[in-house]
Amino acid sequence: MASGLMSCLAARLGIAEPEVLRKAEEYLRLSQVKCAGLSARTTETSSAVMCLDLAASCGKCPLDRAYLIKLSGLNKKMYQSCLKSFECLLGLKSSIGIRDLAVQFSCTEAVNMASKILQSYKSSLPQTQQLDLDLSRPLFTTAALLSACKRGWRFSYSTKEEKEDNG
Q1: What does the DSSP assignment read for the chain?
Q2: In the chain, pLDDT over 90 holds for what percent of residues?
Q3: CA-to-CA distance for 65 and 122, rounded, in angstroms?
Q4: pLDDT at 161 over 70
Q5: For residue 70, what pLDDT is reported?
């Protein structure tokens, strides 16, 4: 039954790659074992949709998030929460880079500065701490991008003020 549901949902989402479908079915089987505590908040359909979402993102297959949420039958907040829980419980690591984050928040001009901030932070630490440091974790990338955006905003804001004062 789950395989039929999965293939039906995949067809509705336009997923034709068999690898993505196999990966989604694997995630669904794992979720039935590892994510049993989430079953009170999710239905079989919503679980299948989230597994398809995770498999498609691993396979670099873009999907319409709004349509996924609609198919799942959950509201946006609940869908995102359950998807993140599935991701963690299934042991999937979603590494979103600085560039991806910058595109999402429309601040691509801050990417280079954010990379420099991360490198500066890493070089300021003692050698022993640098070995265990993973700068690709979302905490570090988000903080670096936020700092870069704030610095860039302050800079652009101060240059506008100077132009207005001079002009």
Answers
A1: -HHHHHHHHHHHHT---HHHHHHHHHHHHHHHHH-GGGGGT--HHHHHHHHHHHHHHHTT----HHHHHHHHTS-HHHHHHHHHHHHHHTT------HHHHHHHTT-GGGHHHHHHHHHHHHHHS-HHHHHH--TTSHHHHHHHHHHHHHHHHHHHHHHHHHHHHH-
A2: 14
A3: 35
A4: no
A5: 92
Contact 45, 10 (CB under 8 A): no
d(CA 44, CA 52): 12
Q: Which two tokens stand for residue 16?
A: 């034709």
DSSP category for residue 91: T
DSSP 23: H
Q: Please write the tens of the pLDDT for every residue from 9-44.
A: 888 888 888 898 999 899 888 888 887 776 667 888
- What is the signed CA dihedral for 141, 146, 149, 154, rounded to 10 degrees? -140
Q: DSSP code of 30?
A: H
Sign of CA dihedral 132, 112, 141, 69: negative
User: pTM of the predicted model, to two decimals?
Assistant: 0.60
* Cβ neighbours for 92, distance < 8 A, ≥ 6 positions apart: 54, 58, 86
Contact 72, 112 (CB under 8 A): no
Q: Are 67 and 40 in contact (CB under 8 A)?
A: no
